[in-house]
Amino acid sequence: MGRGLLGIEELSREDIESILVRARHFQPAPHQPFGRFDTLRGRTVVNLFFEASTRTRTSFEIAAKRLGAETISITASGSSVSKGESLVDTLNTLGAMRPDAIVMRHAASGAPHFLSRYLPIPIVNAGDGTHEHPTQALLDARTILDRRDTLEGLRVAIIGDIAHSRVARSNIHLLAKFGASVVLCGPAALLPREMALIARGIELTNEMSEAILDADVIMMLRVQLERQNESAYPASEYFPFFGLRQEHIELAKPDVIVMHPGPINRGREISSAVADSQRSAILNQVENGIAVRMAVLEKVLAV
Ligand code: ASP
């Protein structure tokens, strides 16, 4: 793994495994707080978020603090800034602050890659447009591996707005590298055929029941209303076809793991009964976000 973390696509299996193993070390025992370490003492991590975030930004901040680093958060509204200007301004601002790493979220795919070419500072991609969200895929893998011995051979159904999902892209790359079989499902307009080209053996279907049959893992995705017209996917029309309900769970493996990167939209892509059920690992994903981001920050800052 070079400097920074821009995407899962460019990571090797070994890079991913080492992050997942290290993250395990940071997971707290049940009902215990996260441990505090000082491996990043004296370092400064800047969180630069041009798009909304609850889980990712908070957990990067907590992760950095648990390792003894200082954090500074800069937020901006993605919709009101022009891409080129904001990034150039940002470069100057950040250069002056001399941080040790920058965690960045931006609505434009490729924005962290652009920044990483100009700044001699490791950049961690916290979500770039519809492209990648690498730490989400890492925490998803950690969550699955807390319940299964291996990713190899698992059937993983990823359902919803595949077209606009950076979570789907990062997960497809990761799961394919580890030999899981991936089936993508969504309305035709949100399921571009070229998604099948990301890795070998990816199935595409518009039928929820087909995707979920015998699934080990179901990953639900939010309809990315910030990237398209809201009126195209009203909840009342979306939910009957692509909303996850108890009847679907019966088709999957009995110990199926239900996941969602959040924020969840109850009654649009998932029913409350399923989101709050025993099969749901949604809050475990949130918890694992901290452990995985601790492992990533440590690795990126090469301690
Ligand atoms: N939180 C995830 C992301 O930033 C998923 C979502 O927003 O739907 O991509």
Summarize this structure as a short list of keywords or feature phrases.
single chain, 303 residues, alpha/beta, five-stranded parallel sheet, four-stranded parallel sheet, 9 strands, binds aspartic acid
Describe, in short, the structure shown.
This protein is α/β, with parallel strands linked by helices. The chain has helices at 13-26, 55-66, 83-97, 111-118, 134-145, 166-177, 208-212, 235-242, 246-249, 272-275, 282-300; strands at 44-49, 70-75, 101-106, 123-128, 155-159, 181-185, 203-205, 217-220, 257-259. Residues 127, 133, 166-167, 222, 261-262 line the site of aspartic acid.
Description:
By secondary structure, the chain is of the alpha/beta class. The strands form 2 sheets. A 5-stranded parallel beta sheet has the order 7-6-5-8-9. It is globular and about 55 Å long. The protein contains 11 helices and 9 strands. It has helices at 13-26, 55-66, 83-97, 111-118, 134-145, 166-177, 208-212, 235-242, 246-249, 272-275, 282-300; strands at residues 44-49, 70-75, 101-106, 123-128, 155-159, 181-185, 203-205, 217-220, 257-259. 37% of the residues lie in helices and 15% in strands. The relative contact order is 0.17. The site of aspartic acid has 7 residues, from α6.
